[in-house]
Amino acid sequence: MCPLAEGRHLAAWPRHIIALHAALQRCGHRFLNALLIAVIAGCLASPATAAETQRHALIVGVSGYANPVAPLAGPRNDVTLLVNTLVEAKWAKRDHFRVLADDLAASYYPDKVSADGLPTIAEIRKGLAWLVNIAAPGGELIIYLSGHGSYVPAMGLTGEAAESDGVDEIFLPLDIGEWSDTLHGIENQLTDNEIGAYLAKIRAKGAKVWLIADSCNSGSLSRQAIAVRSVDPIARLGVSPRAFRRGARAHVPRVRKLAPSGPGDNSFVGFYAAQPSLDAIEALVPLSGSQPQSRIHGVFTWYLVRAIRAGQTASFERIAQTIISGYSEWQGAAPIPMFDGDLRIATGFAGQAGRLYSLATSGPQLMVKAGMLDGIDAGTRFNLVDLRGDVPKTVAVGRATSSAPDRTVIEILRDGQSGSEIVVKELHSLPHAFAAQVTSLGVSLGLSVALDPLSNGSNARDHQLHERTASALAALLAAPAQNQTIALMPAVTPAGADVRLIVKDGRVWLAPPSGDTVLPDGGEPPSLAAADISSTSLGGLLAQIGHGRNLLKAVHIIENTQIARSVQVTLLRAAQKRRQGRCPARVPAPAKPHGLNVFDSKAAKHQPVTLADCDLVTIVVKNQNRGAIGVTPLYIDAWSHIDFLYNYEGSSHSALIIDPAQIGVITYTESVPTGAQAKRSGRGNIVLLMTVVDGAEPIAPDFRSLATNAAPPLRADALDSSAPDFLLLAAGAGGGTLRSATKDSDTQVGAVTVPLYLAAPGKK
Fold first, then answer.
1. Which residue, 118, 501, 646, 693, has most beta carbons within 10 Å?
2. 10 Å Cβ neighbour count for 265?
3. Bridge partners of 186?
């Protein structure tokens, strides 16, 4: 059905049609109203733009694998959500898609997508050949793969076709078979070499390709609360170890290079759910603690779609930034994604500024037909617009009280005209005559938490510790909001919690949503020993995790503001060694920074920067704004502990103030945890918070008060909700009375994030 018939894109409806539609609905003429919608749906469909006619997509999703390959629940939801999102975002019309997927009728979403065929190897090859056939100069094509991946020995190839790591990555179609010595491969496999050959043909014809792979190629079958999108080639696909010994060179690092790009070549962009040799995952999303089990997605696809629907699409770089920001919610349990090609090129998506969302009712609740997937969270504010006149008129202001993936419940704050009861009544009785327009985004500051049941075979000591942990958690949840250091919420199920408390081996682990107590990068989540368990210690660690997560959420909203776009941040790394068990003493920020350049915010590289113990790290910030800015450097470690990086000129009393066209320099010495703290290594972030300078001082002298051990710590009731920096302060240090915060200013604050990976001692 045309999107107009479903109440979306209301701005395209003529005013007199909206008025007639509302009148028919008000008078109960359901048949006439339905007939009206059916008639105008075809008439109002906008013609395709020139760009849309050159865009085509092959969308592949495989759910129902047969034994011994485990089936997946996510691809059917991935395909449905992605296709609908691309069509609604006006990237291309539905008939420009070839959808190869199984079991789409069982997807969670009510707006079903019909498949054009099953995702068998024959149909996938036909789809790839179709793209080659229609490719033309200026064309824009998408290839999307959602399902299991694996790897096999690379045999019989020489020269450029030979894999440098001795293995072929493969995607598993629905009819995947087993290893064949005769074929030197798995029956019906789709290899990276084959995909690369199709890509080369497409690019040779002058078209651009965006490859999106939400699958992986390494060998574990399951982890506690998530499904891994990979298949063990030996255990499940019948590949013999002898074949690997002949074909694979295990000592060579795994690589991925499907479409090599030369200087200035912008014909290919690749988005991959995981680095080579890591596992892509599917899981229950969003992480709100109350969603039904049927809403399972590839985690990578979820954040990709969220970026598109939230309008974070000015460039592939911006989409990549948004995906990485979303991954911070997983506290290191999700794999590091990989991006290839020139990410700075434009995507061709229509902008989302000023977008109108439809309204609906559910009993007494008034809802907006948009949600977390559109970047809308609790606290978001809307203008409620009457569409029945010649000129849209704001008649009320609403605020989101709760948000689901595609729906948001709102409350009315004030009205734009007298007779508010009339307006409220009309909003509920004639929702199709009104629309909602976002005026400021909100950030939910709550942290959902649950205690996992004990695993079978737990000893008596863990049973006692479990009871003590349950009592401590109950006390925290029952405490008045004003006494909580962060807004805590009980999760409906452990699998949907932001933090899962897992009692094991005499410790209480504050695990991520996956339930992992050993993370993919070898680190561990925070934990407390049995002797340390109390409501105070548990509450303090939960607050630390929550404040770090919330600050990264807030930073994501402001990292694309004008201030943030008008700075260039580079990070230099100089290796140092411990002497007599200590790293070299701290040195003042140098006038001429030196070291290996490992990060440049303008270079569109979005892989984490790997740092080692004792590295001297120099952060150089160049101010390209028209006025002076104040910069506060913060460091968020793998356990969400926030530190203030104070080694810059003037740090004792102010943010780092940088005049236009000048640079500011911050240095620190990296210290990778050792001994009992060694498992604290892993991922982290350097966050540079920026404000405009008004006169001699910035809006806030600095944000050092957000540091975990700041003295005195910020109190929620001391925050000024009208201040431009309210969102940051509320996220980083707000207490239990603050359940959400809103960003109202787009010009006075900004942020740049540098993702980090700390190599444990002995690793690089």
1. 501
2. 12
3. 179
**CA-based nearest residue to 343, from 603, 595, 531, 583:** 603
pLDDT in the model for residue 279: 72
| Residue indicated by tokens 């805590």 | 488
Cβ–Cβ contacts within 10 Å for residue 693, how many?
20
Q: How far is the C-alpha of 672 from the C-alpha of 675, rounded, in Å? A: 10
Q: What DSSP letter does each residue of 636-660 carry, written as one string?
A: E-TT--EEE---STTTTTS-EEE-T
pLDDT at 524: 85
Q: What is the pLDDT of residues 453-505, one digit of tens each?
A: 998 888 999 999 999 999 999 999 999 988 888 889 898 788 778 899 999 99
Contact 111, 405 (CB under 8 A): no
| CA trace torsion 704, 705, 706, 711 (10° rounding) | 120
Fold topology of 55-341: Rossmann fold (3.40.50)
CA distance 139 to 408: 37
Give the separation between CA 572 and CA 595, rounded to whole angstroms: 5
Containing 689, the helix (H) or strand (E) segment is strand 683-694
Cα torsion angle, 94, 100, 104, 109, sign: negative
Retrieve residue 85's tokens.
């999102």
Condensed to tens digits (0 to 9), the pLDDT of residues 214-268 reads 986 532 222 233 455 555 555 545 555 555 445 444 433 444 445 544 434 678 9
List C-alpha distances in Å: 302 to 110, 179, 372, 501, 728.
17, 32, 10, 25, 25
Domain residue spans in the chain? 3-46+354-440, 55-341, 447-545, 547-758
Instruction: Give the separation between CA 712 and CA 472, rounded to whole angstroms.
Output: 26
Contact 262, 471 (CB under 8 A): no
Q: What is the pLDDT of residues 17-31, one digit of tens each?
A: 555 555 545 445 544
Q: 3-class secondary structure for 574-636?
A: ECCCCECCECCCCCCCCCCCCCEEEEECCCCCCCCEEECCCCEEEEEEEECCCCCEEEEEEEE
Q: Is 545 helix (H, G, I), strand (E, B) or coil?
A: helix
pLDDT in tens, 411-429: 988 654 444 677 788 888 8
Architecture of domain 3-46+354-440: Beta Barrel (2.40)
